[in-house]
Structure formats: C-alpha cells, structure tokens
Amino acid sequence: MSNPFSFLDPLVELEEKINELKRLSESTGMDMSQEIASLSAKFADETRRTFQELSAWQRVQLARHPLRPQTSDYIDLMVEDFVPLAGDRLYGNDEAIICGLGRIGGRSCAIIGQQKGKDVHERRRCNFGSPHPEGYRKAMRIMRLAEKFSLPVVCLINTPGAFPGIEAEERGQSLAIAENLRDMAALRTPVVVTVIGEGGSGGALGIGVGDRLLVLENSYYSVISPEGCAAILWRDGGKAAEAAEAMKITADRLLAMGVADEVVLEPPGGAHRNPAAMAETLAAAILRNLDELSALDEQQLLDGRYAKYRAIGAYASAAVSA
C-alpha cells in the first residue's frame, strides 16, 4: 500500500505487520492464522474508523492518490470491446483525454475520460491530466458521433484543471471549453458524468455537462484547487485545508447542495485499494442511471438537463420589513 499521506500511517503499519506474519508463516510453516485473522479484523475496523472521520482536505489528498484508478483502468475493468478514437481533426491528438466506443454491461456507449498518466513518461504525454484545447475538441467530436448514432455518453472527470500555458491559449483553450459547455447542454443523447478523482475548474466542466453527475466518495469537484483558493483569499497556500473545508467540494457536500446527483461509495480504504471492486460498483451506477435516462424522450431529456443546471445555486430570500 503506497502511503504518501501521514493520516494513512496506522493502516500502513497494520498491513505491514499482517504481511510480515504471512511471510513468516510461509517460510517456517508455523500456523499464524489466528494472529493474522486478529490483525486483519483490527485493520478492517481501523480502516472504517479512519475513513468515516476524514476531513475535506484528506479527501482531496485521496483524490490525488498516485495509485487511484484512472480512466484507462476503468476502461480495462468495465468496458468491453473498447475502440479508441483519436484527434480533433483540426490540430492533433491530446492524450490527456481518452475517447472511444465500447460496451458497459452490454450497453454500447461513447466513453470520454481524462487521464493523468501512471509513470513519468505517460504523465508527460498526458500533460499530468491537464488537457489542451484539442482534447476538448476531440471529446466533442466523439459526443457528436454518439449523438448521430443514438449512443449514450459516459464521461469520467479527473483533472486538476485545463492547461493554462500560452500555447493552449493560442489554440483557443477558453473557446474550446465554452463551446463544449454549450454543445453538451444541447446534446440529444443521455450523458452520465462521473468525477473519479480531481474535478478542477473549467478543465472538468469541459466534459462535465450532463443529465446526471456522479461523484466517487473520495473525489472532489471545485472551481479552483484548495491551494489556489487559499493563495487568493489568505495569500497563503498553506491554508489549503481550511479552504477545502470552506469550499464544500467533497462528495457529500456536493450531494447536499444539489450539484451532484449521486455519491458512489468506494471500497474500504479507497478506490486504490480495490480497483476491480470500484469499477464494478461504478459500472452498476452508470448503467442504472442510463436505464433511467433512456426511458425519457428527447424533449424530456433536454428539459431535465436544463432544469438541473438552472436549480444549482438557487436560493430563497425573505422580504425584510421596514
């Protein structure tokens, strides 16, 4: 278990003890089953306790866990007969966004997801998950293809934000994202969006407009990173934990505010502990929502999507008497 975060130290220590006992049992032939079972039960209890008490900042850290499943993992684990499609037919192919056609649970659909990369070379190719404008144009090309053939669209969000470099701006970054927001809002086919890790700023919104927004339990969705918020409000990036709490960017808060439609629970210890189980749970959630959306006619679908986004941020005000 890779452990870049101190709050996971007790779990790592327990797991190391369990593995050490297993190795000792195998090498000596001693029966250590009772000790292993006792520690395993303690590990399960400690895992439940730790993850029930996570702060907003700790969930942000888990969303960035280097072993957290990425789009390519979910494609491998829950998509059958995946056919990748590349290029925006205008500039080039952006590997920060993976697109293609495949089947989830036997249902044909278009799959679009952001990819951070797993090793140094892939991360450089994927620009650490920060797409360029050609990535968003590629995504919309595939969405229009899905619309043409009446295929639902499944989007997987995992980005710290769109790439802010000068070359991206020169190629129309803001316009590409704005056009995606406009065109996804009017897409005449069901769209299910899931935040599988980080959901940062316009980079997430560029493939984030849909009929349903699902958020994995330890993911976050925000207009800016907690570090960026802290740097702006307090001129101190070290106050990221305070910012994460104040911004209400975690799955449970997003659901309570009506931004998210469903929180997808993760396996004990987080999605990185059991990617196969996470993929199975996510596939079931996606299929359930697609079944509900497929029962709607085209106009009901568009009206529901419009109403969903109009309702976000709504508030009631009371008249104040003089």
Number of helical regions:
14
- Characterize the largest beta sheet: strand count, sense, and whether it forms a barrel: 8 strands, mixed
CATH hierarchy class name of the largest domain: Alpha Beta
CATH architectural label of the largest domain: Alpha-Beta Complex
Helix proportion range:
40-55%
- How many independent structural domains? 2
- Uncertain runs: none
Describe the global form: globular
Look at the structure and name the CATH superfamily of the largest domain.
2-enoyl-CoA Hydratase, Chain A, domain 1
Strand and helix order: HHHHEEEHHEHHEHEEHHHEHH
Q: Could you tell me the number of beta strands?
A: 8
Distance between the termini: 63 Å
Percent strand: 15-25%
Mean pLDDT across the residues is: 90
CATH topology description of the largest domain: 2-enoyl-CoA Hydratase, Chain A, domain 1
Oligomer: single chain
Radius of gyration: 21 Å
Q: Given the helix and strand composition, which structural class is it?
A: alpha/beta
